[in-house]
Amino acid sequence: MSARVLIIDGRGEFRRLLAHHVATGFDAPTIAEYDPAASGRLPADFSGSAYDAVLLGDTPGRETGLEWLRDLSRRNGFPPIIYLLSNPGADAEEQALSAGAHGCLASGKIDHAGLVAALRSALARRGQPLRQPARTEETPRASRFGDAVIRGYRFVGQLAENPVSSVYLADSERSGEKVVLKVLHQPPDTGSGEKTFDRFLGEYQIAAGLSHPNVARVHGFGVADDHAYIAMEYFPRGDLRARIKAGIEPAQALAYLRQMAEALVVLHGAGVLHRDLKPGNVMVRDGSSVALIDYGLSKQFALDAAVTSGGEIFGTPYYMSPEQGHGRPTDARSDIYSLGIIFYEMLMRRKPYVAGSPMQVIYKHAHQPLPELPAHLKRFEGLLYNCIAKDPQRRYASAERLLEEVRELERDETER
Description:
alpha/beta; Rossmann fold; Phosphorylase Kinase, domain 1; Transferase(Phosphotransferase), domain 1; 14 strands
């Protein structure tokens, strides 16, 4: 089970300790840290919708933890809160539960099993299926996606949500097929939203002109109730994560890598950097074919949101190049680095660099020795190292060059 957890506490060492417990208790969790002592109150419109659970310490800064707990728990749709008590006791727990806590734990000595169990309970509550709209409801209700009514599509269910957008599964009334609708939260006509909307439109115009079996199809685009949305291909077979967990033979890993490289050739040729390559953004079209989603657009919006959020909100950059992790300029070679990390994970069924916090992972990408492959996979090490060299100058200069090498290795594998 994976989890998206937000940690709020004014003590940096304590936040890192909690992050370590979460990282070791769940499979590839997304962990974000917020320092209330440095950044103050979370914005009034922050709903926490991008997270499954929140760990809130009772020492958030100038205000009391109970004040924070009451404020956050009253926000519509806010995820369950696990409240961490410095001085646990029956009265303190009763106060916290009355203020809206989902559960309470002692912060003096963290019980790993208890923390994981509390988070799993919160995830179970957060993960209850959404109620489907009845067939007898009026068309506007059936076509409602969050705050937006999008004509021509019928709501099926919600797939994901983050600070930038909500993602829904919908039926297209025109084609009768299921599609994925990504709806931007921020209206395009207010404040910095204009730049966001212009970039969204520009990325769509590029994406709509792309046609390749290894790039997700874009069906349509529009604005509804001041919310921009994009309709994309739906992949019922899911993404690459389940395939990696089940195990992928080397020849199939090479085939997937070739297809991802072919997709990058098309994207880079159109002037689009993906910026967020990871197994969750590699969708399985059929048993032997994959396609990339969320190229360019989603990651840029996420970066904008991080800059304006006012807090230290980080993801888990397992696939991020050293230059991207340290805020330096990126180019096509950063996407190639991410493909190399995915290739390693396909071969080994594990990530090459893991740690208890995002910043530690970023450090390892830049400074940890290159991972070695076991003897029966050594023949792939040259390709791997030319993808994930620390210095971008030592990587393949382009997706085309990577593609040539992959095809050569595939020929060798056929002869084997």
